[in-house]
Amino acid sequence: xxxxxxxxGGTAGHVNPLLAVADALRARDPEAQVLVLGTREGLEARxxxxxxxxxxxxxxxxxxxxxxxxxxxxxxxxxxxxxxxREYLREHHVDVVIGFGGYAAAPAYVAARRERIPFVVHEANxxxxxxxxxxxxxxxAVGVTFPGTPLRxxxxxxxxxxxxxxDLDRAALRAEAAAEFGLDPARPVLLVFxxxxxxxxxxxxxxxxxxxxxxxxxxxxxxxxxxxxxxxxHAQGYAVRRYLDRMDLAFALAxxxxxxxxxxxxxxxxxxxxxxxxxxxxxxxxxxxxxAAAAVEGGAARLIPDGDLDPDRIRDEVVPLxxxxxxxxxMTRAAARVGSxxxxxxxxxxxxxxxxx
Length: 357
Known about the structure:
With 357 residues, the protein is an alpha/beta fold. Helices cover 45% and strands 15% of the residues. The radius of gyration is 21 Å and the shape is elongated.
């Protein structure tokens, strides 16, 4: 029996691919022991036990970025976290570690190296986080979602995706999806979303241009976000939701997507072969623009800078694209080439190679 320790967490960007790999491991070998290393504060503290996996915890120890109290405590707290992970590795006879970045990953990489246990790194974003930059230096293998991610000897494996996306039959679910959102399955749909909290820039652009989109013959499914105060005009062909509980149905109905370009969003849209218009979030270190780069360069998507998106840009660029059937067909073919639904299996193959060595 092989024992795997999957290390990561904090945000959905780390937890979701981790759980996708855990599920793929369990499906492949029900006898395998799959453990998860995380913190008590991260999203994993709720989602991992819900999915039926044992969660081993360590204290949250962020890398210091400025001279403050946390920086002063780091030289004591980080080695303590590493010692805790080493104890877990020995106690559970772990054979291989797979890390996904985040607070739990860096101590796991150091502990695995000291225990001479092979470890594999997966980086979801085109611009890697600090934990994975450090971990890649001693990893048995490094898997990345996007080409060009600057990690040593990285191999493109794609994003490990949840089963409801991997197994999604969009055509088979289109009628059900249209009924769910009160739209016509025979007419094209633009799906607009900016994450669970929404995206003000996208909401404002659609609020000033939705009639133009409807006049162009398109319907709109718009997830405004939990914190949005955007009014619903209750117009036929325009379905407004704060949150999409059934994202699989939303994707089944979407003919084009207008969205932010988080790593998971880009990976899921590309895997499903849906043309996209990405509006990268302008705050942060610029990883969202890089996440979209491969899809844009491959012809599967277009990009509009956040500061340029407004109702006029929707009318001048998005509406003409939606009316260009040949351009949309070319983007659809390109998306099928760019995307992958085998990220979990391809990452597990790297772990298999590390174990074999």
